[in-house]
Amino acid sequence: MSNPAIILSKDIPHANAGASTVRLIIWRRLSQLAMVGLLGQWSFYGIFRCPFLVPYISCQNCPVITCHGRLFTMFWGLWLLLPVSVLLFGRAFCGWGCPGGFVNQMLGKAAPLKLRTKNPFTRFAPFGQYLGLAVALYLYFALSQPRADVPIRVGEFFKSVALTFEHAGLLWLIRSFFVLGFLALGLIAANAWCRLACPTGGLLEALKHASLFRFYKTSKCNDCNQCLKACEMGTRPDETNCTNCGDCMSICPTNAIRFGWKKSQ
After folding, report:
1. Alpha carbons 112 and 109: distance in angstroms, whole number
2. With bands split at pLDDT 50, 70 and 90, how would you rate the model's confidence at 123?
3. Residue 41's pLDDT is what?
4. How far apart are alpha carbons 184 and 190 in whole angstroms?
5. CB of 24 closer than 8 Å to CB of 120
6. Which of 68, 200, 212, 221 could form a disulfide with 256 if both were Cys (CB 3.0 to 4.6 A apart)?
7. Which residues lie below 8 Å from residue 39, measured CB to CB, with a gap of 6+?
8. CA 143, CA 96: separation in Å to the nearest integer?
9. Are 59 and 70 in contact (CB under 8 A)?
């Protein structure tokens, strides 16, 4: 007959991990909401008002002076701090700070297809992020970041958005409807944009393995994939699409998930 004291002692670490995970989730949501307040308007303008094919980069030359990215020159801060965040915490910006990521995660909660399983599609589809990154680099460097839209400025906000689409060039419309299409797809397949197509996600994914700190699996891992089934991005710690969110900390039945500096195996 099992000793209740021994069973209780085994449950304590998981109970503590569960409480820590709840606190971590709360802090992550607060961080996301704070970043929505800080970058939300700029993120919205990047899709609906930015005249350039690759948004969020050429803000210093943008005629849409009502955009916060142009008005407060916050793009300098983002593009200076983002490499630092990657060096420290890998792709954590996607899970902790990106307003678009937050919107996709909220939409993903209603999606019937969570894609939280291992199969050929979930293995290879995330490489679409690198394709998105390659297209963005081509538009910026090969085509010299063309201005493909007339930035209409009128008093009414939504009227300005409607006029922006009305006077946009073909490439701008293709870009915008591609992004909006993936956003809508997120209502069916959870986090479709973040997992399968985001150029910024592709860039951070390519660089995250140089990060100093991360969530990772130890040798205790028995490949039960409980972490994968709980993950909004449908992945496991330190694998493709892991954003260091920490939601999986209390899920592991063998307590094999750690955060910190991962020593070379």
Report:
1. 8
2. very high
3. 93
4. 10
5. no
6. 221
7. 68, 74, 78, 97, 99
8. 32
9. yes
